[in-house]
Amino acid sequence: MTLTAVSKTQPDEAIDAILATGQRVFGENRVQEAQARWTERLSGLDGLELRLIGPLQTNKAEDAVVLFDVIETLDREKLARALAEAAQKRGRSPRVLVQVNTGAEPQKAGVLPEAAAALIETARRTYGLTVEGLMCIPPADQEAEPHFALLRDMAERNGLSVLSMGMSGDYETAIRCGATHVRVGTALFGERNRP
Ligand SMILES: *Cc1c(COP(=O)(O)O)cnc(C)c1O
């Protein structure tokens, strides 16, 4: 089980303090903010793994493949194509998770559960991406457990081993449901500054 420390909007001192404990896996939800924070730090740090956990626009795909080791938010074919082209151009191929909108919430990113298998297949076969797992953010007003269970079953059916699920409020449930990566921000850093 891997702890992804969600460092979005946190001040530099807070990140340095977590780095000093040996934490090396970090999640960011905006490409530009992550570039500003990590580009310089990267050169001095061995074993750092950066994971993009926020929505990605196709026009940021190149910046994303240069900076991130894992992109957790693939949710449409157009983005798969943009990532494949960016990887080719920049000579760097992050691993990918498919984000599933398990609650089918209209305002939320993620592929609908019934369309996930096709997207996984297309991302692998047509675009040659290394799809290693699934990610979800359950609806805020529902119990998380059925969503985590759905994601786990989908991963099993599609032969995927990585499950990124669980945040500060529900990571224990997620671990019980088989999470391999939990994304924890406030429980680790304290409240975020509003961007
Ligand atoms: C901000 C964020 C988190 C961390 O949320 P906390 O409740 O602060 O732990 C996890 N996942 C995603 C996708 C996020 O945007």
UniProtKB/TrEMBL annotation:
Family stated for the protein in its record: Belongs to the pyridoxal phosphate-binding protein YggS/PROSC family.
One Pfam match: Ala_racemase_N
CDD domains per the UniProt record, alphabetical: PLPDE_III_YBL036c_like
Every Alanine racemase N-terminal domain range: 14-192
InterPro entries membership: Ala_racemase_N, PLP-binding_barrel, PyrdxlP_homeostasis
PANTHER family assigned: PROLINE SYNTHETASE CO-TRANSCRIBED BACTERIAL HOMOLOG PROTEIN, PYRIDOXAL PHOSPHATE HOMEOSTASIS PROTEIN
GO MF annotation terms: pyridoxal phosphate binding
The protein's name: Alanine racemase N-terminal domain-containing protein
